[in-house]
Design a protein that fits this description.
single chain, mainly alpha, 12 helices, globular
Length: 207
Amino acid sequence: LVGDLLRLLTPRQWRSAWLIAAILIISNRAISIASNSGMETALFILLNLATISAITKQKYTTATILGSLTTLTRPDGIFVLLILGIMYIVDKRRVPIWHILGSLLIALPWILVAYQTYGSPIPHSVTAKAAIEHLWFTSLQTKLYVIFAEPLRIWGLVTIPIMLLAALKFLKSRMIWPLLLFVMMHLLYAILPSNLGFDWYFAPLFV
C-alpha cells in the first residue's frame, strides 16, 4: 500500500522511496511493540493506508467501506471518513449521501450490539483512558515529540532531509491533498487539551 501511494504521488526516479518507507514502518518501535502485544495499531495503520489509497484513486465506494472499518477499529479513524467526504465534494460537487448511508449501515451492527451489551458504541477503554489521562505528560511539546521523534528514533536525522525533499515533490501533485488534510486534522486533534490519549499511539501521523 505504501508503494502504491508512492507510485501515485512521486516521479519515477523516486521509486526507491518504496524501500525506505517499508523499512521505516517495519522498524518503528511502537508498531513492533503493538503488533506483539495484541494492540490494534498495525491493523489501524493498514486500514488508514488502504482508505487513503482508495481516495487518491477516486474509488469512493471502496474508500467508504475501508474508512468505516478504520473507524470501527478506533474512533479517531473518523478522520479518514471526513477526508473522504471533503475530497468527494471537491471532486463531484455534491454531498456523498449514499456513501454516508453506506458507512452508517456498516457501523450499525456494532452500534446495536454495543448499546445492548455495553450501553455505548464507544469502547469503555476510551473512558478508562480519559480517567487517567491527567497522570500522563500531555503538554504540546511532549505530544509533538511522541508523534514525530519516536517513529524516527532508529534512523534519526537521516530521515528528515528525505522527508522534507519528498514533501516538496509531493506538493506538486494534486493527489497530495488527502494526505495533507490527514496530517492537519491529526495535528489539530493532538494539540487538544484532552483527546483521550490517542495521540500517544501516533500511528496515523507516522503514516
